[in-house]
Design brief:
heterodimer; A: two-stranded antiparallel sheet; B: Beta-Lactamase; 5-stranded antiparallel sheet; globular; binds guanosine-5'-triphosphate; binds magnesium ion
Chain lengths: ~170, ~130
């Protein structure tokens, strides 16, 4: 079975990076030079696509969206038929965790859907508040979503997200 | 003296007829110049975001599937057409897009738009939008 997973979250949280780390194929990449200072050179304006073979029965389509909200037309397209969602949050950046509430509503994340939150950039100085703030948002939405600290650049770390999503589905069904 | 974007639009419309909109946006979707004809309603920000997404995807299709260099993207509808080409303006990667209604002539649109895209790489337009 082929299932669709979306990676969402703020600009620079590591969506494009994690898909590159996880994918078994060369990813489809639609990054362009950013014309404003966003703390990095490139930003996604179309879609990221990668493909991950889990086992004989299951393959995953990995879809990354642009973090910038002006591209919500791409979000609308990716949102259809999702099996699971991973929200990436940049540590130490208030805009990034504050957006989580908006993303939960926009992507209609609900109890029956496998979902994981990954806090990235944690190696660049750790901020305990990020986890605390995210947990408060989740409580407000009455959602029980696992929150991990991950490094999207490392395949093993990225894999933790995928294994959790698969385990969550088994728990749900 | 530098041209206004409106003058460029008028010039193009005189040749092509039925041009509804002309837009110059950065590759990451920030509108630089837009001109929309008469009563036609288009949200400039949305147009810029759509053109940058579509161009990036077209680019990926050209490079990663067709193994070739990207040139342009065309969308045809029952009533018209939207044509997008890459350009550079003031040392920034940009996209020039045109929306035409009526019976557009693809060959003409491509010819004039590619010519304009080439002109923009060395032009400096009047600051007035
Ligand atoms: N030090 C450090 N760098 C990271 C970490 N995660 C990602 N990065 C880097 O941060 C940048 C993240 O960029 P992207 O993957 O393009 O981010 P994105 O979420 O796709 O951003 P947009 O497409 O612009 O929305 C890359 O340069 C990564 O190498 C991390 O945990 N620690
Ligand atoms: Mg990206």
């Amino acid at each position: 079975m082929h299932k669709k997973v979306a990676f969402i979250g703020s600009v620079g949280s590591g969506k494009t990076t994690i898909i590159e780390s996880l994918s078994n194929i060369h990813t489809i990449n639609t990054d362009v030079q950013s014309s404003v200072d966003i703390g990095k050179e490139l930003t996604t304006v179309g879609i990221d696509y990668g493909h991950l073979v889990v086992n004989q029965d299951t393959t995953l389509g990995l879809y990354g969206v642009p973090g910038q909200q002006q591209y919500s037309l791409v979000w609308d397209f990716v949102k259809k038929g999702l099996w699971a969602i991973c929200i990436l949050v940049k540590n130490n950046e208030s805009d990034s965790w504050q957006e989580v509430s908006y993303l939960i509503d926009y992507f209609e994340i609900h109890k029956g859907m496998p979902c994981v939150i990954g806090i990235t950039h944690a190696d660049q100085g750790c901020d305990q508040h990020t986890v605390h703030n995210i947990n408060q948002i989740l409580a407000k939405h009455q959602l029980n979503i696992p929150v991990y600290t991950i490094d999207p650049r490392q395949r093993d770390s990225a894999n933790l997200i995928m294994q959790t999503l698969i385990a969550l589905e088994e728990a749900v069904t | 003296m530098s041209q206004t974007f409106e003058a460029i639009f008028k010039n193009l419309d005189a040749k092509l007829k039925n041009v509804r909109a002309l837009n110059l946006t950065t590759a990451d979707g920030f509108p630089l110049y837009s001109y929309i004809n008469g009563s036609f309603k288009i949200e400039e920000d949305k147009l810029s975001a759509v053109t940058s997404s579509l161009t990036a995807l077209s680019h990926a299709a050209a490079r990663q599937i067709m193994n070739d260099d990207y040139e342009s993207t065309c969308i045809e509808t029952s009533m018209g057409m939207m044509f997008m080409v890459q350009t550079r303006y003031q040392d920034q990667d940009c996209i020039l897009s045109l929306i035409s209604y009526g019976q557009p002539n693809l060959g003409q649109i491509r010819y004039y738009l590619l010519r304009l895209a080439k002109y923009l790489t060395t032009a400096k337009l009047s600051a007035e939008k």
